[in-house]
Amino acid sequence: MVSAINSSIRKESPAEAAPVPYDCARALASEFAARAAQHDRDASFPHENFKELAEAGLLALTVPTALGGHGAGALDTARILGIFGKADPSTALVLSMHYIQHLVMARSTRWPGRLSRKLAREAIDGVALINALRVEPDLGSPARGGLPATTARKTETGWRLSGRKIYSTGAPILKWYAVWAKTDEPETRVGLFLVPAGLPGTRIVETWDHLGLRASGSHDVVFEDVVFPLDHEIDVRAPEDWRVPDFTQSVVHAIFVAAIYDGVARAARDWLVEFLKNRKPSNLGASLATLPRVQEIVGGIEARLAVNARLIDSFAGDFDDGVQLSASESSIVKLTVTNNAVAILEDALSLTSNHGLTRANPLERHYRDVLCGRVHTPQDDATRVNAGRLALGA
């Protein structure tokens, strides 16, 4: 199955891809980092970050070059997300969801070409973001199975959508929703519908008041008999046809999430190193950086970061090269990288005492943010159970 999917992937060669604007991303990241603490404190959405991303052309990073974008693959995109994850993971998370959808559009035979071209043009021309709205109050994550309560009813004039989606990352700025819903047909189908934001009957309920990623705007989106065109059906199938998840979606989602939280850990590492060099307790008469115990723990942090970098780069590079991969392997990479990132923050806090937990320093914010890495699909327990079943042939 994987080999068949890989063989159908339409790739652009490196010669066709536009140069990836790393220097531009780093310059923007510096600005994002300067604003991140205030957005975290206020739980305010960083609209200005996305205005600047649009002006720099970075919303079109994964749009194919044939449509005017950069045509970036998984490796370059993961590296860009690592840069932004280090600066402001809330911004990076919204951006990653947008990038995933455009990668899926470019590589999927199920996305209607007219719609994918329209969204590509909009991503090039302005602040036009898309995310998939999948999670529901009762259903939870669709990855756990079950049909959504959100229902699309087909009429002569269009689809009529009703339901409630939670954890809708980027809700304040999204122009398009890819909504996971079921039909009310005699033989129920389930899948994605492309719904323009702001239609009558749509409202955003500001429920997001979270420990971490407080600026991600992951609010509820409610649809009350929202009408949208019939030809905005993206990929709707019989429920049993979804037993094998979309390969591109599942693989790049795992690796992009991993890259963001690795970025958070790198921000923590950088702050920690400067703190240890500059902190000179009077009873020691030297900086904390001179203590063997401190050096050992920092060395362990460096080891975890080195492993993360290898995992992210090699896996994303293999994806771009068309190497046969599995969704299970991508889940294991995500699990390993995000848990390494959490362990790095815990080690950093063990060396900083009260300094690491005060809101005057960024380490406590990085810790709150990095904990969110475990929540993203696929969750750790599901990853381990699936790997165990595969190993045992169950």
What is the level-2 CATH architecture name of the largest domain?
Up-down Bundle
Q: β content, as a range?
A: 5-15%
Which structural class fits the helix and strand makeup? alpha+beta
Number of domains: 3
Let me know the average pLDDT. Answer: 93
Total strands: 8
Main pleated-sheet profile: 8 strands, mixed
Low-confidence residue ranges: 1-15
How far is the N terminus from the C terminus? 18 Å
What's the CATH C level of the largest domain?
Mainly Alpha
Please name the CATH topology of the largest domain. Butyryl-CoA Dehydrogenase, subunit A, domain 3
Per CATH, the superfamily of the largest domain is: Butyryl-CoA Dehydrogenase, subunit A, domain 3
Residue share in helices? 40-55%
Shape: globular
Number of helices: 12
Radius of gyration: 22 Å
Output the helix-strand order.
HHHHHHEEEEEEEEHHHHHH
Structural overview:
The protein has helices at 2-8, 22-42, 47-55, 74-87, 89-107, 113-125, 247-278, 292-320, 327-352, 354-357, 363-371, 380-392, and strands at 129-133, 151-154, 159-168, 174-183, 190-196, 202-205, 219-228, 233-237. It is α+β, with helices and mostly antiparallel strands and 394 residues long. It folds into three domains: 2-128, Butyryl-Coa Dehydrogenase, subunit A, domain 1 (Orthogonal Bundle), CATH 1.10.540; 142-241, Butyryl-CoA Dehydrogenase, subunit A, domain 2 (Beta Barrel); 247-392, Butyryl-CoA Dehydrogenase, subunit A, domain 3, CATH 1.20.140.10. Strands 1, 2, 3, 4, 5, 6, 7 and 8 form an eight-stranded mixed beta sheet that branches. Helix 7 (247-278) runs parallel beside helix 9 (327-352) and helix 8 (292-320) runs antiparallel to helix 9. The longest helix has 32 residues, at 247-278. Mean pLDDT is 93; it is low at 1-15.
